[in-house]
Amino acid sequence: MPGLKQHDIPPVTAALRVAIVEDEERFREAVLVPGLCDFGFDVVGAGSAGELYKIMLSRQFDIIVLDIGLPDDSGLNIVRHLRQLDAKIGLVMLTSSVERQDCIQALSDGADMYLPKPMDVDVLAVTLRSLARRLSAASGAPPAAPSEWHLDTTGWCLVAPNGAIFALTSTERSIVNALIGADGSPVTREALIEALGEDPFSFDHHRLDMLVYRLRRKLGDANCGQNPLLTSRGTGYLFVKRP
C-alpha cells in the first residue's frame, strides 16, 4: 500500500482477557461475548459464580464483568471474594439494579465500576479499555502524554490529543491502521477495501463510505477538536494526526 509505514502501526499485544458473568444466556452469548470479541477482547462467558470459579482454575483474567444477581451467589459476594484474591484484577458490576445502596456496597467491596443495564457493547468496550489503562498506569507503566491522535499499544484503541479513547471494532481498526500508516497521505478506497481483506472489484464502495461515516461520527462524539478523518476528494480518505 503506497505510503503505508508499518513501523507507525503499534504492535498488537496480547488481548485483554475478560470474563462475563451473566445468567441471561442469550444476552451473554449473543450480545456481550461476540460484541466484545469484535472489539479485540479475549472473552469467556459464565452463567454463575460456580462456573466462573471453575473456569478460573485453568484461566486467568484481567477484568471480570459481573451481574449483581446470579442464581448461586450475589455479585457483591463475588466482588468481595475476588478482590481478596487479587488486588490488581479489574472488577466491573453490570446490573439492572437501581438501588443506591447496592452501588455503594459494590464500590466499597472492591468493584472498580458500577454500570447499569442495558449497556451498549461499544460503551462497555470503551469502559473496559479505560479501566485497563488505569490499572496499567497504577502498576507502574509510564503515563501517556498524547499530543496527537494515535493508536495505543494494544492497537485496539484510538487516542485523541486530549486523552479521550475510542475502542475500535476489528473493521474500524483495519481502516484506522491503513489511514494512520499512510502518515497524512490520502488512501484510496481500493486500498482501504484491501486493508479490510476484501476484493476492491466486488466490494460495494458505498459500504466502505458508510463504515467511514460511522467512524467519523464516533470520533466526533467527544470534544476532541477537528475530526481527524477527512475526505480526499476524488481519491479516498486521509487521517490528520495533529489537531
Mean pLDDT across all amino acids:
85
Task: Report the end-to-end length measured between terminal Cα atoms.
Answer: 25 Å
Low-confidence stretches: 1-12
Cα shape: elongated
SSE-based structural type: alpha/beta
Into which percent range does the helicity of residues fall?
25-40%
Quick one: how many beta strands? 11
Strand order within the widest beta sheet: 2-1-3-4-5
Query: Strand content of the residues, in percent?
Result: 15-25%
- SSE string, helix = H, strand = E? EHEHEHEHEHEEEHEHHEE
Gyration radius from CA atoms, angstroms? 20 Å
Give a short account of the largest sheet.
5 strands, parallel
Descriptive account of the structure:
The protein has 243 residues and is an alpha/beta fold. It has 8 helices and 11 strands. It has helices at 25-38, 49-56, 75-85, 100-109, 121-138, 170-181, 189-195, 205-219, and strands spanning 17-21, 42-46, 63-66, 90-95, 113-116, 150-151, 157-159, 165-167, 187-188, 229-232, 236-239. The strands form 3 sheets. The protein has a 5-stranded parallel sheet with strand order 2-1-3-4-5, with helices on both faces. It has a 3-stranded antiparallel sheet with strand order 6-7-8. It has a 3-stranded antiparallel sheet with strand order 9-11-10.
Protein topology:
Elements: E1 17-21, H1 25-38, E2 42-46, H2 49-56, E3 63-66, H3 75-85, E4 90-95, H4 100-109, E5 113-116, H5 121-138, E6 150-151, E7 157-159, E8 165-167, H6 170-181, E9 187-188, H7 189-195, H8 205-219, E10 229-232, E11 236-239
Parallel strand pairs: 1-2, 1-3, 3-4, 4-5
Antiparallel strand pairs: 6-7, 7-8, 9-11, 10-11
Helix pairs in contact: 1-5, 3-4, 6-7
